[in-house]
Amino acid sequence: MVQVIWLVVATLLTFSIGYLGYSRYLAQFVELDDSNETPAHKYEDGQEYVPSKKPVLLGHHYSSIAGGAPIVGPITAGVVWGWVPALLWIAIGNPLMGSVHDFVSLSGSLRHEGKSIGYIIGEYVGERGKKMLLWFAFLTIILVVAVFALVVAIVFNAYPQAATASFVYIALALIFGVYLYQLDLPFIPGTAVFVTAVFGGVWVGLNFPIALFPAPEGSPYAPETIVLFGSGLASLVPAAGTLGANTAAWIPVILLYAAIASVLPVWMLLQPRDFLSSFLLYAGVGGALVAVVVGTLLGTSSQPLVIELEPYYGFMGTAGLPLFPLLFVTIACGTISGFHSLVSSGTTAKQLNKESDARPIGYGGMLGEGLLATVALGTVAIAGVTAGGGIGRALPNFASGGSVMLSSFGIPLEVGAVFMALVLVSFLLTSTDTAVRLGRYMAEEIVGTPDADTVYMRQMQEVGTNRYSNAAIQCLIAYALVASGSWASLWPLFGGANQLLAALALLTATVWLANWDEDKQLISTGVPMALMTLITIIALLYLALYQNLYQQFVLGGFAPEAGIVARISVAAQIVLALVLVGLALSLVWIGYKNIRSVRERPGAAPADD
User: Coiled-coil region(s) at which residues (predicted)?
Assistant: First the structure.
């Protein structure tokens, strides 16, 4: 049998070549220069524009981009189509497409005052293109918040210890923010103390797990779990019947946290929390990778670290789904993800201390997420196929397979499983509240300055631009999507929307480069953009027209117990997928016309329509 270590070796090889060679070329290509003043220094306001030390910002950026998708996606793809297609898409696609996408999104934002990709494309193709991209991004953000909040709730339900540990490190982050930015105390000693305390929070979680409602029969919590509410109140929780009372109850708590965290100054929670949690993430991902090497060479793991999955299950896989195009939207984060362009141009560009930091943070950060995807694929390769599907399959395999890896260091399986669950939660929480913050930026740019002619319209604009109401609206919509109980159907739609957003971010970078210099080559961004546009549009059309419209409505594929709500949900997904495809095609056409105009008439001014 093939050993898991070869997954790690293959990924590290291609990633090393990409970072040492291609990223260096890209840094010269976009002319990074530390003598330039970054937006963080130029517009420093203590709220959004805050110059940050490279390790702090790398921790924030990595924590924000590495959500649950690079864990769920590779595990699902490995089980459906085999570990070889999943590994190839991660090992080759990440350095040539995903890392390029993140780097040029960050670099482009640096050249445009730290503004978003929507603002950037608007500079060159006009206000109409800007609004279309912003609406696309905003709709994608809602899907991100909904899906990630759900996965955090599932983790908290499966591992109450992770819930307690998460609260501990959030509290520590608030204190650390005051320590660094208000008291201006020493960075290195403070880091040592607070990072130690974060790992101490793991011990607290193991000893004092928290659940909101009792566990269902047959799936008991650990004996020491503290249950806050009795089962008599479970019937009052929306979606308790479909998701389970405890999972359903955690969702509004997580969304409330995300809304509050998204409006706080970045120094108060976002920066210190992401920096501290990054040590958990580095320990989880790096520790698992090293554990694979140690366990393979020394044979110290609790079981052999070999791949239990087949290398290839055929084009239609084990679930009857075509490898092309669905593999490429199933593994989104981990290879290429449009959400990263919103992080890079939404928060990271506003905190970059010097331009050269864009290479390790933008390009290198995405490689780090690829390593997480490799670890996730390795966990399911060790654990093999278990019951369940999608998120239900991913979580237990990530925790149990990861605990087998960590057992190479002598860590007990129970402790290792809880730690890996906490690692997953750390990724998810940071991505969730960062997504709400980014959604605020999108909405503010869509609405603009409140200047409508009527009092009513001005009030509506003020609601849209107010940070508190803006965040609340996003979380309420996300909650409505998840609380319906139809969360499983959101995953492929999220994957398609996310990948299509990546194509549009690459389109934005290509338009920027074409307008910047008529002699700039457009292959590095243009080829990935064309490939992702083609693949993702085919995938969304497959999901909308074949899987939903034809199989469900035409052939009557709905389950007998499915009611009108299920039919409305499927119909809404069809409409949303087609709207996203229409927006993308329109933007690609507008961008193509701009590039052609610039190439044919060098020096042409940006559009102002």
Answer: none
